[in-house]
UniProtKB/TrEMBL annotation:
The keyword Magnesium does not apply. Belongs to the zinc-containing alcohol dehydrogenase family. Keywords: Metal-binding, NAD, Oxidoreductase, Zinc. It holds the Pfam family ADH_N. Gene3D superfamilies: Medium-chain alcohol dehydrogenases, catalytic domain, NAD(P)-binding Rossmann-like Domain. This is alcohol dehydrogenase. GO terms for cellular component: cytoplasm. Its EC number is 1.1.1.1. It comes from the Eukaryota. InterPro entries: ADH-like_C (IPR013149), ADH-like_N (IPR013154), ADH_Zn_CS (IPR002328), ER (IPR020843), GroES-like_sf (IPR011032), NAD(P)-bd_dom_sf (IPR036291). Residues 18-345 form the Enoyl reductase (ER) domain. It is an enzyme of class 1 (oxidoreductase). Its cofactor is Zn(2+).
């Protein structure tokens, strides 16, 4: 294995919407319980774009190294690490570390641990060539799986798999995915099909329609040109969808789903549009007995399960690979909703 360099390339941001600086920075040293990972590929998630824009009601810590869908190889580890060896293939996900000891950790609610750190947000992320991760939270990447293709599973895949589980849908149920042609959505369509659900995708444009219908969607509704409620009712024999997973970055999408959710159904909120609010009239909410719930990434167990769908060939990320230095272009396309599937950054360029 090549020696670990002292410095590396990374994308650094110093302020909200600040320049995405492609620059040389030091290679970090792993703590006692951490791995140092040579990150070869990183997915670019819409959450990274939100963080760059400081969209959320959090104090985004700057300077920021974004990215939380990293795939690479272990090149060094702290003395306390027993579960990984040098040379192992490994993934870095959104939850970089937790205390492993609080009630949330014990219940498998990793993202809710008050001491959790997040890759690309409160812990330097995967838009760099070498990054650190607590070994207990590193994901083991199955043999034979392509590192670039698998990178987006580390956030997008785990998140939609968990959200689908939390939708309480049963095999044969109609499940709507909003944002179905984007990064999370294109994986949600495949996981939903593999889990036995009947998938209706909502997004816009020919490229996304083609992607959704060729990867397991039974129907596609264009949110810009079609009547969404009519479309869902037509695809579900007039009953409505038993579950909806919202990965669209849109408050309106959530509001519209209140009109096509089937009585007893569940609406799962995943997308995080800035300042969005849900207004669900109490009377109809109760009478139709609907559930609206949030879903935050997934835990370590969800990670193992989500990666196993990929190992078995049931799910594969539709990716486009570009150099990490081209991140500004990727954010521009993402902001305009012009990405079908996921862009993956090659950290060597
Ligand atoms: P993306 O930009 O790749 O995809 C979003 C898709 O939504 C696009 O294809 C866009 O065309 C579509 N869209 C926009 N408005 C729509 C509407 N009204 N109806 C239907 N589709 C619409 O983004 P992504 O990387 O897939 O991320 C999606 C969202 O999920 C982001 O807000 C991100 O922050 C969030 N996210 C949440 C979690 C979590 O744990 N809850 C994890 C990861 C990402
Ligand atoms: Zn993400």
């Amino acid at each position: 294995m090549a020696p670990i360099p002292k410095t590396q390339k990374a994308i650094v941001i110093n302020e909200p919407r600040g320049e995405l600086l492609y620059k040389e920075i030091p290679v970090p040293t792993p703590e006692n319980d951490e791995l140092l990972v040579h990150i070869q590929y990183s997915g670019a998630c819409h959450s990274d774009l939100h963080a760059w824009k400081a969209d959320w009601p959090f104090q985004t810590p700057f300077p920021l190294i974004g990215g939380h869908e990293g795939a690479g190889v272990v090149v060094a580890k702290g003395d306390a690490v027993r579960n990984f060896n040098i040379g192992d293939r490994v993934g870095i996900k959104w939850v970089n570390s937790t205390c492993l000891d609080c009630r949330f950790c014990l219940q498998g609610a990793d993202g809710n641990c008050p001491k959790a750190t997040y890759s690309g947000f409160t812990h330097d992320g995967t838009f760099q060539q070498y990054g650190t991760v607590k070994a207990a939270h590193a994901a083991r990447i199955p043999d034979g799986v392509d590192l670039a293709m698998v990178a987006p599973i580390l956030c997008a895949g785990i998140t939609v798999y968990k959200a689908l589980k939390r939708s309480d849908a049963k095999p044969g149920d109609n499940v709507v995915i909003t944002g179905a042609g984007g990064g999370l959505g294109s994986l949600a369509v495949q996981y939903a099909k593999a889990m036995g659900f009947r998938v209706i995708g909502i997004d816009s444009g020919e490229a996304k329609k083609k992607l959704v219908l060729s990867t397991g969607g039974e129907a596609f509704i264009d949110f810009k040109t079609d009547d969404i409620v009519k479309g869902v009712l037509a695809a579900t024999d007039g009953e409505g969808a038993q579950a909806v997973v919202h990965v669209a970055v849109s408050e309106k999408a959530v509001e519209t789903s209140l009109e096509y959710i089937r009585p007893t159904g569940t609406i799962v909120l995943v997308g995080l549009p800035a300042d969005a609010v849900v207004h669900s009239p109490v009377f109809s909410h109760v009478l139709r007995t609907i559930t609206i719930r949030g879903s935050l990434v997934g835990n370590r167990e969800d990670t193992v399960e989500a990666l196993d769908f990929v190992r078995r060939g049931l799910v594969s990320t539709p990716i486009k690979i570009v150099g990490m230095s081209e991140i500004a272009h990727v954010y521009d396309l993402m902001e305009k909703g012009q990405i079908a599937g996921r862009y993956v950054l090659d950290t060597s360029k």
